[in-house]
Structures are given as structure tokens and as C-alpha cells.
Amino acid sequence: MLPKQHVIIGFIFSLMTYIIFPISPLEATIIFLASFLIDFDHYLLYVYKKKNLSLNRALKYFYRLNNDWKKIYPRRKEYKKNIFIFHSIETLIPLAIFSIYFPIVWFVLIGMILHLILDYSIIIKRKAPWYCKFSIILTHLKNKNKKDLPNS
């Protein structure tokens, strides 16, 4: 899903949550921010791979990469999937544990789960591999003996 869609849906969701449930404006804002800032791991991946800090170039890179994936769709199982550290159960579990001790973290977790639900809706629609947005470890294991996507 595109960042703009995450922002719009995250805003609507956090506003509705604020209206329906007894949460503070700060807590609603945290849900909103977490619903799209989870994608910061895409930027970190770009910086790591390309050794470049340009946010604008990172956005262009991922739009191009998304189009490249669409082109190789029938052969997608041959290629490695990117590892997104915040889009993983390995990140959600520690956050869930921290939320027991720091209740404000619960709202970060809600925003991130909303984001992942939206991502999974696209994954299901495209019949794409689910594991790359589920587990760092599983993605790493599944990437063995696969080739990098050209120009990635």
C-alpha cells in the first residue's frame, strides 16, 4: 500500500478510535503516527543498500522496485524478498511485552497492527508471499539460494 493511503486510513482510524473509545488526543496521535511511520524501515533499507540519505530518492526507489516486482510477477519465487525490521512478529512481540509495563506503547502497537492489516490486504489481493511482512527470520531463511531482484 502506498504511504499516502496509510496516512489517510491511519488518520480516519485514529480519529474514529478517539471518538468511540475513551482515549486521549495524545494516544490517538500515537496510533496515527505509528500507522505509517512503521514504514521507516523501508527508508532504513534504502540507506543500507544504496548508502544514500535522500528521502526523495528512497521513495522513487521503492516505487520503481514495486513496478519491477509487478513485471517479474510470474517468476517472483526466484527472487529474494526485502527484510523490513518493523514489519515483523519479532518487533511486535517485544512491543506487546513493553506495553504491559508502559501502557503508551499499546497505542504504538495498535497503529502498527493497523498498518500490517492494510499491507496484508494488498498481499492477499496480489497473492504475494506473506512471510516478508511477517518474520525477519522466516524471510531470511526463505531468501537462501535465491537471487537479488535486478536493480534492487
Folded structure, characterized:
The chain has 152 residues and is mainly α. The chain has one domain. The protein is 67% helix and 0% strand. α2 (25-37) packs parallel to α6 and α5 runs antiparallel to α6. The longest helix is centred in the C-terminal third of the chain and has 22 residues, at 105-126. The chain is globular, with a radius of gyration of 16 Å. The two termini are 19 Å apart. 22% of the residues are buried.
Question: In summary, what is this structure?
Answer:
By secondary structure, the protein is mainly α. 67% of the residues lie in helices and 0% in strands.
List the helices and strands and how they pair.
Blueprint: H1 3-20, H2 25-37, H3 40-50, H4 55-71, H5 89-101, H6 105-126, H7 136-143
Helix pairs in contact: 1-2, 1-6, 2-6, 3-4, 5-6
Count the helices. How many? 7
How many DSSP E strands?
A: 0
Distance between the termini: 19 Å
* Relative helix content: 55-70%
Shape: globular
Please outline the major beta sheet: none
For the CA atoms, what is the radius of gyration?
Answer: 16 Å
Q: In percent terms, what proportion of residues is strand? A: under 5%
For the record, the count of structural domains works out to 1
| Integer average pLDDT | 92
Coarse structural class:
mainly alpha
What is the string of SSEs from the N terminus onward? HHHHHHH
The unreliable regions are none
List keywords for this structure.
152 residues; mainly alpha; 7 helices; 67% helix; globular
